[in-house]
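Fold this sequence, please.
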Amino acid sequence: MKLLKKMIAALVLLPAMALANEGGPKLDRAPDRLTNLSSLQNGAKLFVNYCLNCHAAASMRYNRMRDIGLTEDQIKTNLLFATDKVGDLMKVSMTAKDGKDWLGVSPPDLSVIARAKSGEAGSGADYLYTYLRTFYKDDSRPTGWNNLVYPNAAMPHVLWELQGVRGAKFADVKDPHEEGKTEHKFVGFEQISPGKMSTIEYDEAIGDLVAYMSWMAEPSQNQRHKLGVIVLIFLSLFGVIAWRLNASYWKEVK
């Protein structure tokens, strides 16, 4: 009975998954900077200044950022804007009701968003990296912004001062699979007004921000990776010793 239920559920989800894979956006590969402390520190600064105004990270404490090389004094001086204590959780004053009234939806907690957004198209870091780089001006939206990865997103482009204002260009192209049908496809961005950063600088900043969010989703992952390597080396050495010991025990047996 359980097997039958699983098969039915898979059949129901299959068309939706196929549609998502066919029409879903192509994700750009996020740079791997989980071991780069300067990138993580810059990402933490961007997160506190631009994300923590609306989004909380209630599973994360400020003092955990000591693991990326920051002292408590640096955290207090540069990153404490919503609380007075380094040991507090990264919460915001905006309530869920206020978020829904102002933005139409309550902003989600970002503690583990980098893990929650992983899927067949790419990792959660890839999703966030592409999402934060594909906002464009859209006057038909209540916020004035739209996004290629998440169309009709309620979130405005909070980093527009850094990236500048961009518009998206779309074109109607023939559908190669169905004669007489056209598709409305994205063909590129156009820069309407410049930002404080160049395109390369902005991409680098988003790479740092995404690296911090990926680290925040599992702060102990770097230690886990190191421990995993040590365990594998130990098991390999132990395997060689066990193999030679076994040969020694059975060498007289014919």
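The two ends are 53 Å apart (CA to CA). Confidence is low (pLDDT under 50) at residues 1-23.
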